[in-house]
Task: inverse folding
């Protein structure tokens, strides 16, 4: 399959890239990892006049903490997130998520920011970023703005981004002490989209009650879903088995799945219920520091299940 | 710009090419450079038959634009053999019967080469994880895993021999 004709530019500064976008608007597309965009071009589901390849712009590939936030640059590959010690030790939910996206070859190119900017409700990082209450930093020739991820996903393959904007960074608040998270996904085979997946992030008080809870759902609605009723229920409760069971039930209610070849509505709701419980248990273990190195190795081998 | 003059290093050799923006890397490799060891399987970013190393990392060359490779190094299956001697990964696939029809084999081997560069002594789980983006419809993967384990053992044996030694 051959993509339709297009012009290709590979600027070496962000300002140049933004100028091209300002000039072409909706006719231009940003190329980062290309692992969603190039297949769309080949299928001729997208036919931009101009591709703006940002891969030659230096400085966009950093993943680092600064000013209370983890900053993930526009060119941070999924594989970099998977292997970064900072992510493994401080943001294991991000490692869980990166590890189950597409396959290892795709992850060598695919970017975290692209996973959000693409606006696909089946993508994995959106649910995780909703659970983490991350922010998306968007730049255009006329300036920079910060979009809370809760306002970023506006519809199927639609985001709050303007055509002349580039996502330059995702910012995740640094976790408070006694925080932990996890991401659980069922895929029919490696590389398939999630049948359903759940991201959960909690912060616990000294006595074990939930101070903060974030729950995000993948591919069970027209957009990624922040399970706000489940989150509200969790806050102030001890994270015991009864609480976790009820949270699973609520999250299943908040899911809006449709039936397809991956499963029926009932099946997907039940997956959300079960994965919410599993994700909360692992989040609790990580928050309490009970997930040691051996447990983490076992999690890695289980491939997010 | 719909057309581009690019330079790439393919299996250690500098080459220049004229490409359209829309030319895919796999087509540059197969049709311009006539290196047909890199296969096109699904053409939809699933199967991994087209895997090559781009600056040392395995990628699906059906999902990279040729122009993106400008100034970079590409390694294909043709670059594995040195001076008539098979790469240990190739030897492993031969010795352990790591293929049946052979269609996935070039991509599978490139992924294996990159894995062993990064992790010379992988567990079986790590091998299976690493090749999870390369589909094989014949073998059931058992002999592919054995082939990569053979290569890992062979490479560590070679590394253990002091240079100039005869052991």
Result:
């Amino acid at each position: 399959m051959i993509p339709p004709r297009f012009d290709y530019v590979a600027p070496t500064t962000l300002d140049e890239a933004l100028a091209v976008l300002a000039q072409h608007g909706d006719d231009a597309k940003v190329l980062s990892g290309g692992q969603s965009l190039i297949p769309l071009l080949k299928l001729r589901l997208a036919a931009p006049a101009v591709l703006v390849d940002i891969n030659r712009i230096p400085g966009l590939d950093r993943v680092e903490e600064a000013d209370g936030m983890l900053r993930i640059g526009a060119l941070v590959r999924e594989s970099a997130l998977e292997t970064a010690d900072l992510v493994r030790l401080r943001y294991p939910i991000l490692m869980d998520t990166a590890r189950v996206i597409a396959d290892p070859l795709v992850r060598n190119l695919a970017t975290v920011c692209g996973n959000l900017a693409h606006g696909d409700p089946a993508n994995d990082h959106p649910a995780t970023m909703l659970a983490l209450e991350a922010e998306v930093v968007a730049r255009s020739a006329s300036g920079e703005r910060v979009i809370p991820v809760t306002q970023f996903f506006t519809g199927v393959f639609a985001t709050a981004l303007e055509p002349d904007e580039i996502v330059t960074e995702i910012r995740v608040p640094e976790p408070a002490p006694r925080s932990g998270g996890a991401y659980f996904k069922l895929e029919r085979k490696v590389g398939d989209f999630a049948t359903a997946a759940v991201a959960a992030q909690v912060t616990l008080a000294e006595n074990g009650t939930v101070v903060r809870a974030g729950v995000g759902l993948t591919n069970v609605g027209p957009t990624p879903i922040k399970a706000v009723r489940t989150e509200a229920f969790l806050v102030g409760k001890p994270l015991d088995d009864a609480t976790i069971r009820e949270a699973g039930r609520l999250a299943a209610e908040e899911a809006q799945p449709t039936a397809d070849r991956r499963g029926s509505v009932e099946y997907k709701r039940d997956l959300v219920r079960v994965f919410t419980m599993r994700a909360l248990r692992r989040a609790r273990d990580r928050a309490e520091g009970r997930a040691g190195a051996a447990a983490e190795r076992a999690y890695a081998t289980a491939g997010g299940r | 710009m719909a057309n581009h003059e690019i330079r790439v290093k393919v299996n250690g050799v500098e080459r220049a090419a004229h490409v359209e923006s829309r030319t895919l890397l796999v087509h540059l490799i197969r049709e311009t450079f006539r290196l047909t060891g890199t296969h096109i399987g699904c053409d939809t970013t699933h199967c991994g038959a087209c895997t090559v190393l781009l600056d040392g990392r395995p990628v699906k060359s059906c999902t990279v634009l040729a122009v993106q490779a400008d100034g970079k190094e590409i390694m294909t299956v043709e670059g594995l053999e040195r001076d008539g001697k098979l790469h240990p990964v190739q030897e492993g696939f031969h010795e352990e019967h790591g293929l049946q029809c052979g269609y996935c084999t070039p991509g599978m081997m490139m992924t294996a080469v990159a894995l062993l560069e990064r992790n010379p002594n992988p567990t079986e789980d790590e091998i299976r994880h690493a090749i999870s983006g390369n589909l094989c419809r014949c073998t059931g993967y058992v002999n592919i895993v054995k082939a990569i384990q053979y290569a890992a053992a062979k490479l560590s044996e070679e590394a253990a021999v002091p240079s100039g030694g005869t052991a």
In short: Residues 48 and 134 of chain B are 4 Å apart (CA to CA). Chain B has five helices and five strands. Chain B touches chain A at residues 1-2, 4, 20-22, 24, 43-46, 48, 51, 57-60, 62-65, 67-68, 70, 111, 125, 129-130, 132-134 (CB under 8 Å).
